[in-house]
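Q: A reviewer asked whether we had any structural model of the full assembly, not just the individual parts. We don't, so I'm hoping you can provide one. Inputs are below.
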Amino acid sequence: MLQLNNSLFLKLLRTQAGAEGPRLAAACLASGVMQGLAVFTVLQGLEQLSDEGIQFHTFLAFLICLGSFYFLFRYITGRSAQIALRGIMEWRMRIATKLRSISLLEYERLDKNRVQTALLDGRELVVEAARMLMATAANIVMIFVACAKMLTVSVQGTICVFLFMGVGLWVFLRIVNSVHAHMGPAMQADQNFSASLRDLQEGLQQLKLHKPKTTDLFGNQIIPGLNTASDAREMVEGKHALGISFFAMFNLLILGLILFLLPGLLDLAPEDTSTLLVLCMFSLTPLISLVSFVPMLSKVEFNLNELADVEARLDNVAERFEEQGVQTRWQHADPVIPQFSHLQLRDIRFDYHDRNDMRLFGISVDEFTLNKGELVFIGGGNGSGKSTFMKVLAGLYTPHAGEIILNDTRIADINMEAYRNLFTVVPTDYHLFSRPLGLHVTPERLQEVLATMRIETKVHLTEDGRFSTLDLSAGQRKRLALACALLEERDVYLFDEVAADFDPVFRRFFYEELLPDITRRGGTVLAISHDDRFFHVADRVLTMQDGFFRNGAQNSEEGTR
Ligand SMILES: Nc1ncnc2c1ncn2[C@@H]1O[C@H](COP(=O)(O)OP(=O)(O)OP(=O)(O)O)[C@@H](O)[C@H]1O
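A: Here is a predicted structure for the entire assembly that you could use as a starting point for your response.
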């Protein structure tokens, strides 16, 4: 059921309009009154037409009403649209800030499609609904003005018209409520269908190579999804059409009743009957805008409820040090990054849980130390917990037990941000931004590092500070990621299977020259790697198995540098 007192849309407009709200409401009222007065002057003109002819003052009054109505109507519809647009954009900005502030683990758990849809869809609808709301409100005022005039013509006739209209509205609102009840499932079905389409786009390469995959995706996901979405939408549209056609028919019916029934029933004079008819005609047309506005409001409420749900979910999982940034709707000051000397992990436990809180996998590290200038490799089978360990080490996952100690100081939630900024992490799914984000780097310095990565002929910095291209091979992308990582000039480098995409020549260069060079210049490197033929360059090699370090985290298995 559509409930206006809990309407997020109205709340959004009220909050955003602030002090301008009462002015808008007054202008809306005045606009409706002017519209009504314009109708009166038309009526007056009609009367004068059959007597002595149209008077100039009637014409002037008509023009004044018309002009006032035009300016007021333009103001309320234009401003309300701007206010709604600003409101929805600020809300999205707030959600984007909150999205940035949640922990990585919570981010990985989020339904990304839902977040994306909530953030991107429906903006135009909200703006259009704001415009429609103002137009509808002004129209309703005009209807009241017209009704007041009707009362002066015939009280009984007006009561009859009210009764007719009341019955029509009651039936119409019942239909609208059933439209609202079906709107949620219909939009949900649309979202499911969109998710299937995303599978199609993102997996197109695999689908092109494997017909059964395509058949399966279309046969069991896309086509059933489309059918469900279409069926649900057809039901909504069917109800909507029922509402609109009923109302359109009822309009005519009311006019018919006034013309054919009221004169005999109430002994109305012909001129009173025609006045009632004209007023009714002017009043019923605006009611149609109400007919199309109410289903639109249902859609808007659904969209805004999605936004509110996403925001509430993010609110529950914001990291503590981000709170200040969220409150200012933007960014708190950069943290002061400590000098790295050494760090320790003690009695660390970290577990993944499913939605029912069942433990899926976990790592357990009794003691781990990393010293400035060290080159440490971590090996181990797939799924043994290496990447998870790296994320815990970098402070991206908060351990459920144990402590992280940096330079003999325990890291708590509150200094976690400064701690994280010690690290440059190149994960397996490194995202390349379109420009070297957050790096104050000259084109010459970038070119130098690109040359070290041997991609200087492939990519360069354009005049507007962007990378000339990101259409690179997998290995080239990783080299560019590495270049960005080096330019960050952080104290500790964490590499997760960075070399997996490198050719043999660059791989040798990476292990035997680049990594030792980083440590020679005072950097510290911890690299996850399966390339055991290069393990001799490391100071220590640790092996993970089932979430533990085999032989402990302090005992090197193969490193011999
Ligand atoms: N976000 C997650 N939620 C739940 N379980 C996860 C999550 N990420 C990883 N896991 C599980 O944790 C285990 C260890 O994963 P991890 O990525 O740390 O392994 P890895 O040693 O880096 O493996 P690989 O060598 O294949 O990259 C795996 O069994 C994986 O299924």
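A: Points you may want to mention in the reply: Strands lie at 342-353, 359-371, 375-380, 401-406, 409-410, 423-426, 492-496, 524-528, 540-545, 548-549. The mean pLDDT is 87.
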